[in-house]
Amino acid sequence: MAEELSGTNIAAEAAGADALPAAEQGLLRIEGVAKTFGTFRAVDGVSLDIKAGEFFALLGPSGCGKTTLLRMLAGFEAPDEGRILLGGKDIAQALPHERPVNMMFQNYALFPHLSVRDNIAFGLKRAGMARADIATRVAEMVALVKLEGLEKRKPDQLSGGQRQRVALARALARRPQLLLLDEPLAALDKKLRENTQAELMELQRRLGMTFIVVTHDQEEAMTMASRIGVMKAGKLVQVAKPRELYEAPRSRWIAEFVGDINLFDGESKLRDGHRLVIGTRDAGALVVAEPREPVGAGKLAVAIRPEKVKLSRRGPASEAGHQSAINLLDGVIADICYLGGTTTYKVKLDSGGVLQASVANSARLDVDAYSLNQHVVAWFGPDDCMVLTS
Amino acid sequence: MRKAPRLSRFNIASLALGLAFLYLPILILVIYSFNDSRLVTVWGGWSLRWYHEFFNDRAMIEAAWMSLRVAVSSATIATLLGTLAAVALSRGERFRGRTLFSGMLYAPLVMPEVITGLSLLLLFVALNAERGFWTVTIAHTTLTMCFVTVVVQSRLGSLDRSLEEAAMDLGCDPVRAFLSVTLPLIAPAIVAGWMLAFTLSLDDLVIASFTTGPGSATLPIRIYSEVRLGVKPEINAICTLAIALIAVVIVLASLASKLSSSRGESAAPL
User: Fold this and answer.
1) The pTM of the whole model exceeds 0.95
2) Pairing with A23, which of A168, A302, A329, A364 sits 20 to 30 Å away (CA)?
3) Considering CB atoms only, which of B160, B171, B174 is closest to A126?
4) Which residues from A are below 8 Å from B160, CB to CB?
C-alpha cells in the first residue's frame, strides 16, 4: 500500500480501485456456516456472497444469530461447520489478528488508557508501520471522521458521537478489505443517528470499501445498505435490495418484520386472466395480481402495505381510479394515529377485519382528515397486493 | 465541571467524629513515642530517646529487617500468583472444576489463621524444611495470594471483554492483547493487591509464629514478646516508624497510579 498518501488522496485511491472490474467480483463467500452454543444453534447453515464495495446489512431481531455471524467473520468465534472465503482464501479458522478484516464494536471498545490518537494508531503500530507513516495515516483518519483538535483527549472526555467516530477511524485505519460494524448507531440519539447514517454511506462510497453492518433497526438497514440479508432463528431467510425486501417479502414473517403490513388470510378462489381472486375471512374477496411464482391451492395471505391503501368518503372518483380500484372496502374509522408527516387510520371493515391505512398529510389544514366513527371507503389496486404463501 | 458540594454542618461533624475515631489513638501513640519518660502513661517532655534506643536495639532492628524482607518477597510472589489465578478464573475457558478451584482459592480468606499456621508448620516439619525466612515467606504467600486474586478478579470482571477483542482485531495475538490492553487497565488493582499483601504480611503474628524458626523472629513476634514483659516506650517509637513507612508506601502507590494514567494521556509523540 502507498503509505505516503496524504489525506485527500484516500478518496482518489479508492475511486481508482472502484474503476477496476475487480470491484464487481465476489469478495466474501460464506458457505454453509453453522455455530452451536451448547444445544442452541445460533447460526444454522448460512450461505452468502458479498461483492467488493458493497454495503451489506444483516437485519434481524435480537437473538437471530446476526451478531454471531459477524463475530465469525471477525474471528472471535470459529464456525462448527462451513467455510468463510475472503478473496478466495478460507479464513474460517484463522485468528482475529490474522485476518484483513476489522470490526467496529457496538460499545466502541475504545481503549480507555489511550488517547484518541493512540487508539487510532494502535492497529498501525501492530502492523509494524514506520512512525512517520503512522503519524500521516492517523492525521488522515482524524480528518476523515472530522475529529481535528481532539487527538489528545481520552475516550472518557468525548461525547457519544465523537467516540463513535474514533471507533470508526480506528477500524478504518488499517484499511481492511472488509469492515464489520456491529450496531454502529445503536448508542446514538435519533437526530445524530440520521446524520451519522448519511456520513457512513458517504464514507463507504468514497473509500469504496466493503461494509457489513449488523442491525435490528429495519429503517437503518433500508437507508444505508445496498443489500439486506434478513435473519431469523439462525437462518438467512431473504437476501434482497431494500425495495425488493419491502415490496416483495418472501414470507409473512419478513413482511411483518420489515415495516407495517395488513395481512388477510384466505384461499385462492379463481383465476381471471392475470388476476387472482382470493377469498379472505376478514376482507371478503380480494383481487390481486398473479404472483410470479405460481400459487398452489393451499392457504395463503394477502398483504397490503398501509401506505398503498387509499381512503375517501365516497370511493374513487376518477375513471383512472376506477381502473385500479378493484378492491373497494367499506368501513368506519376506528382509530387515528397522527404522526406528523402521515396519519395512520385503522378502518374497521364491514366485512369484519381491520385495515390500516397510512395517509400523507399533504395539506397543512386538515381538509382531508377523517374523524372517528366516520364512514369511509378504502381501496387499493391488485398490483399493490402481495400474495404470501408461507 | 466537578464542583464539590458544600459540606453541611452534619457532614462536618460526622466526618470529624469518624476521623477522630480512626486516628486519635494513632495520634496519641505518635505523640507518646516522643515522650522522655520511662513510664508509658506519664508525659516527661519531648525527646528522641526511644528512637535512639530502638536503633541501638540490634534484635529489634533485625526483626524489623526480617519483617520487611518477608513482606516484600511474599507480597511480590503472592501478587504474581494471585494475578495469574485471577486471569485464569475470569478469562480462561470454563474448565472442569472451575467452581471448585475458585472456592478453594478463597478458603484462606475465611480459614482461621491458627489452622493455616498449624497445617503449614506440620507440612514444613514433614518436609524437614529448615524454618526461617523462606518458610515464613511461603506461609505469607499462601495467606495473601487470595486477597490479591479477589482484588484483581473484581477489576477484570468489570473490564469489558470487547477491549481485548478489539486489540486482537487490530493485530494483537492473545498474549500481546493482554499485555498492551488488559495489563495497563488492571495495573492499579495489581498495585493495590500488592500493598494489601504487603501490609497483611507485615502485621501477621499468628502464622509467622507457627512457621518461623529460632533466630528469625519477625517484628510482630518480637514486639509481642517484649510487650509480655511490660510495654516499653520504645514500642511506640517502632510503631510510629511503621506508620510512617506504610504512609510512604501508600503515597508512592497513589503517585505511581496517577503517573501511569497521565502517561497514557501525553503518550509518545507519534
Assistant:
1) no
2) A168
3) B171
4) 107, 109
